[in-house]
Amino acid sequence: MRRTSAVFWASLAVVLPFILWGAFSPSSLDSAANAARSFVVDRFGWFYLLTATIVLVAVIVLAATRWGRIRLGADADRPEYSTGAWFAMLFSAGMGIGLVFWGVAEPVSHFLTPPTATPESTEAARDALRYSFFHWGLHPWGIYAVLALALAYARFRRGWKATISGALRPVLGDRVDGPLGTAVDTVAVVATVFGVATSLGLGAAQINGGLNSLSDGIAIGSGVQLAIIAVVTVLFLISALSGINRGIKWLSTANVVLAVALFAFVLFTASSGRLVGAFTTTLGSYFAELPTMSLQTGPFDAERSDWINGWTIFYWAWWISWSPFVATFIARISRGRTIREFVIGVLAVPTLVSGLWFSVFGGAGILAEQEGAGLAGQATESQLFALLDTLPGGVIAGIGAMILIVTFFVTSADSATFVLGSLSSRGGQDPARVVSVIWGLVISASAAVLLVSGGLGGVQTASIVAAFPFAIVLLLVLVSLAKGLGQEPRLPRRAPEEAHTPVTATSADGSTANGSASNGATAAPAKAGTAGTS
Prior knowledge:
This protein is mainly alpha-helical. The protein has a single domain (6-489), classed as Amino acid/polyamine transporter I (Up-down Bundle). The protein contains 16 helices and no strands. The longest helix has 54 residues, at 433-486. It is globular.
């Protein structure tokens, strides 16, 4: 515990009273959370929309300019992980449980209650997939990318401390080493706790839905979900204590293999030709309508406004609250990549994969609903399993889906304990094991009280409220990154990048590229073979 910073204790001082409140007075917590959600969404929904759009545009511009050639580290550094392993880890941390949970349920919901079209019409089906693409496409990964880029640049190129406040040094100066920096990192940790707790709550609910579909004797309820959280907590703590190169890396690879297998099963047992056609058609309409969808609030249409608040605003808040976790993890595994390579990898590949996922699972769900499968009559957490039941071999696929959800659950929580520990350790160091265990128990307890106090609505409310202060931090990080990059010497247009000497690029031992000590800020050691974020 000697390595913990003031952020650790300040964050616990915020989160633990919330957990106790939910444990002893769940109805009171639910009422207060709903009031806070209404206030934030009604008055600041536009702020979430603008924030997500601004950071997306900014990160694309950064990659397209001369800054895109800058390497995240010394110019001689090269990526630590293969592209395949890198993608598996960032995708498992970045989406994971959410894709499996919402892959069927969201498009089916939009098909029945579309934002603009007539319900259950052909146009409603198109809207359903297009908005699912929108909610899981470029915007969330743009949020992750800009923060991860700032963190990787600050740590590996400039040698600043590996925390959110460290990335703000260009705009806050030495104040990041004092109470202001502690406040920024505390906001990040609290947002991360509730963002991850939202995902764990969804995961526990869906495992419960899967067990219910396999056995009528297992009811859907908070008691079963609490038991699921307890069991999976033990699993992810074991994984977390085994380290990134074993626990997280192996589980992330297993996640991808299982996800591809489940994807292929649905694609080839449902109407594969129609599902592939749905992807190509929706991809075109997604890009064509992207500017309108990005800034639409429905100010003169109450029904449309409510729809946007319930879906788009929730998602943008969820991604923002997840961003400290996912971005820290992505930054830690991205040393040695150029900014352009990083942005293309973080934006393009996950967006296309998410689009394919929703085209297959959402498209199959809409087709099944059109044929009278009654998926909408099922609980949200059970709709994936209800779809699988309509396909040949669906029971086996359902078991595989449950295993996938559990591994995603474990990977997300495993990564989160590492990141929370890192953010609350001095200088962003790799955390002590006891700190990881404490954060693992805290996020599990948070997920449990959210489910008991407000169900799925409760976990959604927590992420919306927790994201608001961190959205402000996110915009400051963008300004800070641009200011830091502006201090970079111009790279020769055709000379090898290795000829360029970075401002204060640090090597693995924390020294600068020319062998001198870094510029006053101590860089956390980045050991070979280690990494460590939604």
